[in-house]
């Protein structure tokens, strides 16, 4: 069996930081409401020059350097995103930008679960012996699609990119994973295409619409997350033959501090083991797990051989967990 190791990480966030107070100029809200309900204090927002591919390429170059390889060594690039610069996909732009000349590149969309879905996809290519060196990116610029007049969603999101290098390895450090989807709850969280009928020529109607801003039923998404995330982590621990005390770090999609706290409590994981950077970045969708991972590694929190239980959850609905050793 071919093993898998994560050998490097990187991250990039936009320069502009916007605190809660600044949002009171847009909608009726307060720093107190946002901070107590979500744990968010500020978020980074991308300016027009900070495109998704620019942020992703910066995070990728860091990850490649920290893995000690060069871009030309990469066999595969997977970009997990819901907000590509180009609906045809942005992975190839990143491939060109970083000079990964021999890599195959494609986008993968699973909203806030995208990074975990990407990790499992990358793992299949490595385990089967097809590819050895994979760059996995999680990047999103949700500020493009937020309704900035809707206070129930606009305060939650931020922009950014994170990346890891996954490589074939003698010992297997990807200890277990589980992926889940439930389309019957799709309507709780959407960035949907809104069709607008156009009669192209007589009797031929086509749709030339636009994407709707993000809509969310916050209470239902909250309920879903605190129920399903502990379940999927439990299941993955069992599969990996680990008990919860062996987890060094709980690394969840950074959606809401109350979700992080509730999941940790249900799993009986002490607060000190929960990685959180929500206060600084808000919810960066597919980027949140790799940004938090990269920061924790660079801060020296995550150390070699630590066991990390990561879980993503979000639109689809989709959710999943991956347990890996650093
Ligand atoms: N400022 C002030 N008041 C607000 C704001 C705001 N920004 N937003 C909503 N309110 C008001 C509401 O209008 C409502 O007022 P009302 O009682 O007069 O009607 C009141 O606050 C309570 O609103 P609720 O929606 O019930 O607030 P709740 O306690 O559920 O918190 C929140 C909302 C923070 C969104 C919560 O439901 C949540 O975190 N849900 C999970 C969302 C999430 O994690 N989404 C992302 C996951 S998937 C992904 O990442 C894409």
How would you characterize the overall build of this protein?
The chain has 326 residues and is an alpha+beta fold. The protein is 31% helix and 29% strand. The protein contains ten helices and 17 strands. The chain is globular. The mean pLDDT is 97. Acetyl coenzyme *A (ACO) binds next to helix 2, helix 6 and helix 7.
Distance between the termini: 19 Å
Radius of gyration: 19 Å
Q: What's the mean pLDDT score? A: 97
Q: Summarize the helix and strand pattern as letters.
A: EEHHEHEHEHEHEEEEEEEEHEHHHEE
Summarize the structure.
By secondary structure, the chain is α+β, with helices and mostly antiparallel strands.
Sequence-ordered SSE layout with sheet pairings:
Elements: E1 3-12, E2 16-19, H1 20-23, H2 31-38, E3 42-45, H3 52-67, E4 76-80, H4 91-98, E5 104-108, H5 114-127, E6 133-141, H6 151-154, E7 159-169, E8 174-181, E9 189-190, E10 193-194, E11 197-201, E12 204-207, E13 210-211, E14 215-216, H7 218-239, E15 249-252, H8 257-267, H9 278-281, H10 288-298, E16 307-314, E17 318-325
Parallel strand pairs: 4-5, 4-6, 15-16
Antiparallel strand pairs: 1-7, 2-3, 6-7, 8-17, 9-14, 10-13, 11-12, 16-17
Helix pairs in contact: 3-4, 7-8
Bound molecules: acetyl coenzyme *A.
Defining traits:
binds acetyl coenzyme *A, globular, 17 strands, four-stranded mixed sheet, five-stranded mixed sheet, alpha+beta, 326 residues
């Amino acid at each position: 069996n071919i093993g898998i190791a994560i050998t490097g990480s990187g991250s990039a966030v936009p320069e502009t930081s916007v605190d809660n107070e600044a949002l009171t100029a847009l909608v009726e809200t307060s720093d107190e409401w946002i901070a107590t309900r979500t744990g968010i204090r500020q978020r980074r927002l991308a300016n027009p020059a900070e495109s998704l591919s620019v942020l992703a390429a910066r995070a990728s170059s860091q990850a490649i350097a920290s893995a000690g390889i060069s871009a030309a060594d990469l066999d595969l690039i997977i970009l997990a995103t819901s907000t590509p610069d180009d609906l045809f996909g942005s992975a190839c732009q990143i491939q060109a930008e970083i000079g990964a000349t021999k890599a195959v590149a494609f986008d993968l969309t699973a909203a806030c679960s995208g990074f975990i879905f990407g990790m499992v996809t990358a793992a299949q290519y490595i385990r089967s012996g097809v590819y050895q060196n994979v760059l996995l990116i999680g990047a999103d610029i949700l500020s493009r699609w937020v309704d900035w007049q809707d206070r129930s969603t606009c305060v939650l999101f931020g922009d950014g990119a994170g990346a890891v290098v996954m490589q074939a390895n003698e010992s297997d450090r990807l200890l277990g994973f589980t992926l889940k989807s439930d389309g019957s709850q799709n309507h709780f969280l959407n960035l949907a295409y809104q069709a607008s009928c156009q009669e192209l020529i007589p009797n031929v109607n086509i749709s030339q619409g636009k994407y709707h801003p993000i809509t969310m039923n916050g209470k239902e998404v909250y309920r879903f997350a605190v129920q399903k995330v502990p379940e999927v982590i439990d299941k993955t621990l069992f599969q990996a033959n680990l008990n919860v005390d062996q987890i060094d770090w709980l690394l969840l999609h950074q959606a809401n501090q109350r979700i992080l706290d509730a999941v940790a409590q249900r799993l009986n994981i002490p607060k000190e083991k929960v990685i959180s950077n929500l206060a600084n970045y808000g919810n960066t969708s597919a980027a949140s797990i790799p940004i938090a991972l990269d920061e924790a590694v660079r801060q020296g929190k995550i150390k070699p051989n630590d066991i990390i239980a990561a879980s993503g959850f979000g639109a689809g609905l989709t959710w999943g967990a991956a347990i890996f050793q650093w």
